[in-house]
Design brief:
181 residues, four-stranded antiparallel beta sheet, 7 helices, alpha+beta, two-stranded parallel sheet, 6 strands, 2 domains
C-alpha cells in the first residue's frame, strides 16, 4: 500500500494564554490515503477543528503543537511559513462551514475562486480574469454566481457555500478537508 497522503502521529495541541494552558488535542493518530474519506465526529470542543487546522498549519501563535503531521511526505509541525504557504492549495485545502467567514463580501466570487491559483503561480492574473468572465464559469457554478459578490447572491447561504467549495477544486490540493458537511 502506498504511504498515506496525510499522516498524523501523537498530535498534541495546547493553547497558552493568561491562565493555565488549555489542552485541545491529546495524542491524535490518523492516516488518510489517496481516495479515502475520513470523518471526525465529536462533541463541541473535542478538538475536531483544531486537528484540521493543525494539519493545514493554520493554528494561531499561542498554540503549542507537538507530534508529527506528514502531508504528502513533508512535515507540517515546525515548518517555515513559506513552506506552509506552498503546501496549502497544492497539498491541502480546507472548506469552512460558514462561507461568510471565508468569502470577502465586496469582491466577486470568481476573483476569490481564482486567487489561490494566482497566489500559487498556476494562473497569471490576466488569465484569471478571462476565466472569471461569465462566458467561462467553472463546471459547477453559474455565470451569476461567478460574477456577483457573495453578499448579493440571490440564493443566499447555499449559493455562498457552493462558491466557497469551488475554491478547493480550483486549487487542486491533494487533500481536501471539508470542515463540516
Amino acid at each position: 500500500m502506498p504511504p498515506p497522503v496525510l499522516s498524523i502521529r501523537s498530535l498534541t495541541v495546547t493553547f497558552r494564554g493568561s491562565g493555565p494552558p488549555v489542552p485541545a488535542v491529546r495524542g491524535c493518530d490518523r492516516d488518510v490515503h489517496a481516495g479515502e474519506v475520513l470523518g471526525i465526529v465529536g462533541e463541541s470542543g473535542s478538538g475536531k477543528s483544531v486537528t484540521a487546522l493543525a494539519a493545514a498549519g493554520l493554528l494561531p501563535p499561542n498554540a503549542a503543537v507537538s507530534g508529527s503531521i506528514l502531508l504528502a511526505g513533508r512535515e507540517v509541525v515546525g515548518a517555515a511559513p513559506a513552506t506552509l504557504r506552498r503546501m496549502r492549495g497544492q497539498d491541502i485545502g480546507l472548506v469552512f462551514p460558514d462561507p461568510a467567514m471565508t468569502l470577502n463580501p465586496l469582491l466577486p466570487v470568481g476573483r476569490q475562486i481564482t486567487e489561490g491559483e494566482v497566489a500559487h503561480g498556476r494562473l497569471r492574473p490576466a488569465s484569471a480574469w478571462r476565466w472569471r468572465r461569465p462566458s467561462r464559469p467553472p463546471a459547477r457554478a453559474s455565470s451569476s454566481t461567478v460574477e456577483t459578490a457573495p453578499r448579493s447572491s440571490e440564493r443566499g447561504q447555499s449559493s455562498r457555500r457552493r462558491a466557497a467549495r469551488l475554491r478547493l477544486p480550483a486549487a487542486t490540493p491533494r487533500t481536501q478537508q471539508p470542515h463540516r458537511p
